[in-house]
Amino acid sequence: MSVGINSRMVAFVVHALAVVASVMVFVWSICYRGGFAWESTNKTLIFNLHPVLTLISLVILGGEAIISYKSLPFEKRANKLIHLVLHAIAIVLGILGIYAAFKHHNEKHIPNLYTIHSWVGIGVIVLYSLQWLYSFIVYFFPGRSSTLRREFLPWHIFLGVFVYVLAVGNSVLGFLEKLTFLEKSGLDKFGSEAFHGSMAIITILFGTFVLLIVYSKAPPSDEEDNYSYSAI
Amino acid sequence: MSVGINSRMVAFVVHALAVVASVMVFVWSICYRGGFAWESTNKTLIFNLHPVLTLISLVILGGEAIISYKSLPFEKRANKLIHLVLHAIAIVLGILGIYAAFKHHNEKHIPNLYTIHSWVGIGVIVLYSLQWLYSFIVYFFPGRSSTLRREFLPWHIFLGVFVYVLAVGNSVLGFLEKLTFLEKSGLDKFGSEAFHGSMAIITILFGTFVLLIVYSKAPPSDEEDNYSYSAI
């Protein structure tokens, strides 16, 4: 059921969308929402770390990690190392981003974990970490038998894609939630900041092109081994 | 990259989750939000048609349509007819559900199309309808050559899954948006209605199990032709 496309071309689209989404979330947090701080009396600056860190980690770095096997010109072992290191960085930054949201809530005495975005978010970071952990044990260190690795691969991909789709979806939920809060507090529903919410659409497109690469066929000219998710 | 599971078993989980999600959205709309009306001075009753119709159409019926090939005991041609009819009903009910949201906005003089949920929603219904239309032409009437149908199948599946994931994600967005509006208007953040928002999690689970069936292998005992998405 693989889609016949030139994945290396699509990878350029992915990288371009990654840049656009990252720039947009920075512009939003800095130009519209006032920038960042880890300690401040202006608690909004603490919150602003949350969308930037979580989008760039679990969505952007996570997406680039997922397509590393098919987008990078290195040999498979190098791509595998990049795959797991990028995912590890994504998890660390993701946890930091989630911590920023709790810190903001605690310091402003807002209750924690009362929205669907927060519930799904906790689910995403737990599942993402579990996915990394068991995959590290099965595929890297100490590594299981090649039969098990090969047979488990479709599950690794399905579960990974599942967690990734949840992460992308939850970013979009987060953008919507924040904009809804702001609009309820008086932000112009058709003003430039409201339309800056179109970064949610860019995020969805980014995730879609990542999955398009996952479900694409190897080009006929490439050796199977250097262009696939086959287990090593 | 197919996952080795017993899809007929998983289909039972899907049907069960479909029932739970449908009951929950009805209970929410009727017991918590006051029920339905097409014409009323209480405009909330008009809005209440929106979550019920869109969830049951594009998500529940859409999901059941997607897995029809793998969940129903009929022969392939019958499943194909069920697949396209269920999707057609989903589109009609979906449009009606979206219309209810516009009707509610118009009669209450709320601006239309200012949220991410509404933008993605318009995208979903347009793409869902286009997906149905080109697929009808390619696979049903007048129907194209078997080569084209076979070669186009991975795209049909990928695009279909893409639109479906958008539909599921957008339902979750919608639940979150409505609950955020209600909580901003004084609804208890930890009250029973807020926790009824867990239907969003049921919806995500439903969508996940639908996709698990899509990406599952045929059981060895089944004939390939009676248990797959191969083009007919």
TrEMBL record, chains A, B:
The chain crosses the membrane at residues 12-30, 50-69, 81-102, 114-141, 153-175, 195-215. It is an enzyme of class 7 (translocase). Its cofactor is heme b. Residues 13-215 form the Cytochrome b561 domain. It catalyses: Fe(3+)(out) + L-ascorbate(in) = monodehydro-L-ascorbate radical(in) + Fe(2+)(out) + H(+). It is found in: Membrane. It is a multi-pass membrane protein. Keywords: Electron transport, Heme, Iron, Membrane, Metal-binding, Transmembrane, Transmembrane helix, Transport. One of its GO terms (cellular component) is membrane. CDD domains: Cyt_b561_ACYB-1_like (cd08766). SMART domains: B561. Its main location: membrane. InterPro entries: CYB561/CYBRD1-like, Cyt_b561/ferric_Rdtase_TM. Gene3D superfamilies: 1.20.120.1770. PANTHER family: CYTOCHROME B561-RELATED (PTHR10106), GENOME ASSEMBLY, CHROMOSOME: A02 (PTHR10106:SF47). This is ascorbate ferrireductase (transmembrane). It comes from Raphanus sativus (Radish). The lineage of its organism: Eukaryota, Viridiplantae, Streptophyta, Embryophyta, Tracheophyta.
